User: What shape does this take?
Amino acid sequence: MTSYPSNIEGMIITPMEIVSVTGGDVLHGLKLDDPGYVGFGEAYFSTVNTGVIKAWKRHRKMTMNIVVPYGCVRFVIYNDRETDPTQHSFQQVVLSRDNYFRLTVPPMVWMGFEGLGVNENILLNISDIKHSPDEVDRLTINEIDFDWKV
Amino acid sequence: MTSYPSNIEGMIITPMEIVSVTGGDVLHGLKLDDPGYVGFGEAYFSTVNTGVIKAWKRHRKMTMNIVVPYGCVRFVIYNDRETDPTQHSFQQVVLSRDNYFRLTVPPMVWMGFEGLGVNENILLNISDIKHSPDEVDRLTINEIDFDWKV
Assistant: This one.
């Protein structure tokens, strides 16, 4: 399994296996020795309705490992870390079962996501710490200049 | 959050929260201090088509924590551990978003499951060790006397 570092430091895109099984497939998620795994704090699902954009949110401490087992979700990562040579860059990834990758998102970058599937869209986030509002920053969608219509 | 131990030693049924969010809900999964959590080894999805029964399988070492974020899955647990006062008992649990519980399954019990939803059915298993065929035993569906039509 080869992982692809993005040009945003700490962001990793890892292709993953879907094992064909009679009666229903098995979809890999995350193993404790996979690239991007830094510990287990919590696993939770976020659903996003078709056409809905949830943006922007930044975790100050949490590393996220995200997979999309149902539907199709577009993720946009915005990097404004001053310490990073790629400051002010965006990266987009569209995840679905047809494009089955795991997205590792480091702390201190902004993320937004949009539901693209025709029905419901579900992402699983396996994070290294439990969710806490204390380490979350939020901006409204217009506070980061990104054209979601592209 | 109150958890309900079943009459099978080590099996726990924990009610879980679905947080209503505009544009798409958040479904809790597992936290590192939740009842039933014993460590992180791997997270993977199993899908099961409607009407399909996958049975029977026993993990000798793995503790499973299972949630059903999409569809509806019936689980049957069979206990044949000689050390257990409830040897030869069965327990059934039906999980879905309408009946949103986490099922903790200890090692050394047999499990089968059936897809009950009208579309696809998806379960997430967060296990304390990585999946390995070395610690898995299998029986065909008829080798344990259970009436799946009930």
Notes: Chain B is about 0% helix and 50% strand. Chain B touches chain A at residues 21, 23-33, 39-49, 52-54, 69-70, 115, 120-122, 124, 126, 130 (CB under 8 Å). The mean pLDDT of chain B is 94.
